[in-house]
UniProtKB/TrEMBL annotation:
The keyword Secreted appears for this protein: no
PANTHER family: LYSR SUBSTRATE-BINDING, TRANSCRIPTIONAL DUAL REGULATOR HCAR-RELATED
Listed PROSITE patterns: HTH_LYSR
Family according to the record: Belongs to the LysR transcriptional regulatory family.
Signal peptide: none
Residues covered by the HTH lysR-type domain: 2-59
Organism of provenance: Kitasatospora paranensis
Protein name: LysR substrate-binding domain-containing protein
Amino acid sequence: MLDVRRLRLLRELAHHGTIAAVAEALAFSPSAVSQQLSVLEREAGVPLLERTGRRVALTPAGQNLVRHAEAVLERLEQAVAELAHARRGLAGPLRIGTYPSAARAIIPHALAQLASRHPGLEPMVTEVDPASVAAAVRAGELDVALVHEYDLVPTEPEPGLAVTQPVFTEPMYLAATAAGTVAGHRRSPWIVAPAGTLCRAMAVRACRAAGFTPQVRHQVDDFATVLALVAVGQGVGLVPHLGAADPPPGVVLTRLPMHRRTRTAFRAGAAAHPAVAAFTAALHTAVPPELGGPPGPL
């Protein structure tokens, strides 16, 4: 009989490519991961791995087993969801991932709605860059998370992960000391997010679409700080609607033909879990009216 926990390790190895990366993602030691995968190979009775230097490639049998593992893990999530429906009332922890601007502008309102409807739930919020969400959700560190994508940086489907249709869509703005265009700032210093983030990729691609590579001066992962630096003449930047609230004096926001879309993500098979569904419903009520949320009180 194949062990589900070992199948999960094999699935993560298919995504991460190295024993060390799997160990880091799942908070195991590399030796423990290697040992468990060796046990899985003995259970399977055929070679599942081919080691090439530091990386580990899956054999055809290993790749086939990963496909089955994805289906097995999805069915287990469906079973968990059905069991949750059989209980009376929602209770216990709900681990929520979010990016910073939504954590400030959307999440508090959603949690208030969640508390009024399901007081037994214990939401636990963690800020996480959308680029890191898939690994955290698959590893069980998060149950549901807000993820976003930009027009110029569409996200690719992640195995083991399911996402909703967009919950809301934000316009993007050029933040500068005067109205202008992205192309008009080819010689300006730019304030962008750190490497490896979707926000950084968005800014770089927007500039390249305008015919130049940005001259990066500051690397900042906080839109309020971006606006503060723009206000004192330290450069220009791109900010979404949620990050553009209350700009400091001297900052001019020019709306661009670009957007950021936010969705919720969770493990494949967990869409029907009542806690996940309850959070998604509460999230919709927390979206500001200008972003497509429900109208405010008359």
